[in-house]
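Hi all, posting the design record for the shared folder.

TITLE: backbone redesign
STEP: 1 of 1
STRUCTURE INPUT:
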């Protein structure tokens, strides 16, 4: 009797294990119909007969972008909104340009991990682990170096070399989103109450 109970318990434990992963596309592609009034988690598919090569293409990633702004950087994000063929594929790309001492300020991507590769110059890059440790993991990156930022963690880059720098990043979402910490905390509409911010920053 005890053996049967043990066997039933073992079977129930095995059967309760769940497996989860990102869902796979059910067709070759699902080019986003950016004009559709239908709202879904992503975009509805364009009729495959209307799909063109342009739906999967963008040019200009070799071009340096204007970094004459307060941050001294520019992030050129290529998401499903600019390349409809990225719809349902779970990937996107970004090129970041940095003037000397330019920064990509602390931010996070709520829907994606990121792999950054330095193609020119020297960057310092880092991310902060979640509560309660809040440990800073940081590295100086030179041309050809790669660094990974896990999904949802605050991260940043700064050009610490004497000249211009740029990087290319791959992200694990067709639309990773970006939340710049300072803008979110101090630029929300309406404002977050100053007493909440004072207590949060222990002022």
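Okay, here is what came back for every position:
SEQUENCE:
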């Amino acid at each position: 009797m005890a053996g049967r109970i043990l066997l039933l318990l073992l079977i129930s434990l095995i059967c309760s294990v769940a497996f989860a992963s990102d869902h796979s596309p059910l067709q070759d592609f699902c080019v986003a119909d950016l004009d559709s009034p239908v709202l879904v988690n992503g975009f509805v598919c364009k009729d495959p007969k209307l799909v063109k090569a342009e739906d999967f293409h963008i040019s200009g990633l070799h071009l340096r972008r204007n970094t004459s702004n307060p941050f001294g950087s520019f992030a050129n994000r290529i998401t499903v909104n600019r390349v409809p063929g990225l719809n349902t594929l779970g990937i996107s790309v970004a090129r970041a340009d940095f003037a000397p001492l330019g920064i990509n300020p602390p931010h996070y991507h709520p829907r994606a991990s990121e792999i950054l590769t330095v193609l020119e110059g020297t960057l310092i890059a880092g991310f902060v682990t979640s509560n309660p440790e809040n440990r800073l993991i940081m590295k100086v990156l030179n041309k050809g170096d790669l660094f990974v930022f896990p999904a949802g963690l605050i991260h940043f880059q700064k050009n610490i070399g004497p000249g211009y720098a740029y990087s290319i990043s791959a992200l694990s979402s067709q639309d990773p989103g970006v939340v710049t910490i300072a803008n979110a905390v101090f630029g929300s509409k309406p404002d977050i109450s100053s007493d909440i911010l004072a207590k949060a920053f222990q002022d």
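COMMENT: The CA atoms of residues 32 and 87 lie 5 Å apart.
Let me know if anyone wants the other runs.
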